[in-house]
């Protein structure tokens, strides 16, 4: 790649070791690809660090490495996913995200056109979410020492006064809300990975949830727990909350929304939707008296239209998650002990 | 790995895909390795996001992926390096770092004992720097899709009122200070990589510079530019500043400190020390009238004992970095155009 032929290079070129060497090739890549698409006033400062004002409040920070395979999947790609995933982690603390950073680990030989597509998708997700990417970093590793591209994003947000959402705050008698059907992201990834064809394409639910969270917290500032059921799915998220809060859960299977095509795909793939990753859903644990109000708010938001009350928090020294099944029985929804879906996010 | 045999597993075990799957194996790894060594009140909240108060001021954030090879080298390892590198980026904006996040991409089969050694080194560097790791993430990729471990750290800091340090702020007539001898880090890495033996072991200079920066800024708040000459070395950092500020530089070769063993190794390896990475040095550009005071402050700090005034900022529409050589001539210190030292940080 050189200064004169960059357009050509981005169509046909590949990442080489010079793109990570700290010299001119890296400077051109950063300027003509990252800065061009992710343009914003803070990034344009071109420091190694970004400087910006934040509104008053406690600070929230979260980081996530993204190693999803394949890089492109129905409903998104590693670029949009790396924005949504980290914004959601910030939002699940009850905070409104204000900025993102992004670090790229590129494998030698990776097509620059694919990289540009990923950066453009990241820019679009960032723009839609209203949260700029203010600082970044690029490293290159030799062919066979990486897998195309890995992206770590870190999000910073500000927590409004009075909000104290925590995985350890669930109490017996409270209820569990879920913002929509589960399993879409994991099934979309796995279908693509295994080259499975279904009648309708199953798309990832990857989306940024902080707008929905803002509406919910404005109405009910004392929500106890918010959690996005990503890796390990709804089952793992609830087990983590049960563990942190010292409570149990009783879920109603018939209330847990799963799209019919996702359910069918899970049966085919031998997966339990409760353990399949989501990237645009949230669990909310709140007082029973607030449930209807919060569901009304969720139903009015594009990302919460199918929100449902799926169970309740109970006293349980053993911190078990139990599900009342459609057939009138009950089963324990345990931690996932082995591998289910690697590289799902 | 299981709950009962963790001590044994950390001595003899390796990373497997379940450590990234979101289930129990991952929870145990996070609790018994990451949380145990990096323990601090914010991390103990066990959110996906960390929540903490910060002092008033503008926020500074910086992120860096670390892919250094080999993972362990004289004077440090990827764990300590990933702490120092990001703290330094925050400090070079003139800010004092307050917290770090860390995301790990682990390759299947990587020895858990090595991972523990890296996390312990990270914990020590974080503790010595007085900046806690408040949030993290772990992903696992299949054998052959990574290279042991990659670590992305993100640092957050607070910028004191009145400080406006920027790579674009250098002005003709100002002077260039350098905090100590150059090339140690790059030569230490390359010596280890190439299995070279020298009479004395050359150690990386990897260190956290925010303490030195704090002392310098307290004395001279209107320093114009701070920059750590990492990838691409002193030459690249000065070219970037020249470009951002629209100025030129004239350096005095005889004033630029290089350890004799580093100089000898560079000759053997065919490297120019000006282009070799450092991880514990800083460039400071300031008014000539402040130079002596800043050098005195640097000399009184363990990381600035060999600080020197190495050149000056000049008017130059072509933004060139020129060096007056020991022999009375002059040469242009250009951008590095190709690959020199990949995976140096």
Automatic annotation (TrEMBL), chains A, B:
Domain PurM-like N-terminal: 47-158
GO biological process terms held by the UniProt record: protein maturation
Domain PurM-like C-terminal: 171-318
Coiled coil, from the record: none
InterPro entries: HypE (IPR011854), PurM-like_C_dom (IPR010918), PurM-like_C_sf (IPR036676), PurM-like_N (IPR016188), PurM-like_N_sf (IPR036921)
Superkingdom: Bacteria
Gene3D superfamilies for the chain: PurM-like C-terminal domain, PurM-like, N-terminal domain
Pfam families to which the protein is assigned, alphabetical: AIRS, AIRS_C
Family statement drawn from the similarity comment of this UniProt entry: Belongs to the HypE family.
Protein name in the entry: Hydrogenase expression/formation protein HypE
Source organism of this protein record: Roseibium album
């Amino acid at each position: 790649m050189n200064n004169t032929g960059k357009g050509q290079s981005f169509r046909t070129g590949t990442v080489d070791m010079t793109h990570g060497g700290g010299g001119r090739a890296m400077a051109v890549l950063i300027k003509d690809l990252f800065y061009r698409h992710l343009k914003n006033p803070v990034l344009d400062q071109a420091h190694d660090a970004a400087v910006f004002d934040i509104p008053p409040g406690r600070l929230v920070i979260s980081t996530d490495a993204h190693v999803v395979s394949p890089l492109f999947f129905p409903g998104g790609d590693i670029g949009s996913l790396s924005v949504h995933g980290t914004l959601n982690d910030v939002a699940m603390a009850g905070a409104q995200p204000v900025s993102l950073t992004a670090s790229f680990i590129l494998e030698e030989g990776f097509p620059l056109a694919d990289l540009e597509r990923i950066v453009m998708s990241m820019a679009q997700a960032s723009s839609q979410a209203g949260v700029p990417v203010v600082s970044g970093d690029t490293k290159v590793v030799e062919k066979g020492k990486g897998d195309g591209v890995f992206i770590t994003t870190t999000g910073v947000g500000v927590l409004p006064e009075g909000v104290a959402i925590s995985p350890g705050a669930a109490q017996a008698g409270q209820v569990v809300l879920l913002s929509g059907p589960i399993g879409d992201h994991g099934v979309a990834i796995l279908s693509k990975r295994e080259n499975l064809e279904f009648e309708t394409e199953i798309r990832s639910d990857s989306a940024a949830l902080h707008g929905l969270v803002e509406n919910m917290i404005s109405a009910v500032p004392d929500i106890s727990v918010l959690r996005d059921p990503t890796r390990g799915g709804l089952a793992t998220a609830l087990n983590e909350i049960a563990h942190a809060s010292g409570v149990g859960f009783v879920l109603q299977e018939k209330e847990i929304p799963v799209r019919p095509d996702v359910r069918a795909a899970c049966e085919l793939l031998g997966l339990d939707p409760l353990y399949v990753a989501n990237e645009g859903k949230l669990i909310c644990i709140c007082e029973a008296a607030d449930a209807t109000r919060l569901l009304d708010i969720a139903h009015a938001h594009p990302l919460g239209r199918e929100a449902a009350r799926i169970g309740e928090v109970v006293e349980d020294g053993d911190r078990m998650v139990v599900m009342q099944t459609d057939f009138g029985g009950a089963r324990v929804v345990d931690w996932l002990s082995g591998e289910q879906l690697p590289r799902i996010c």
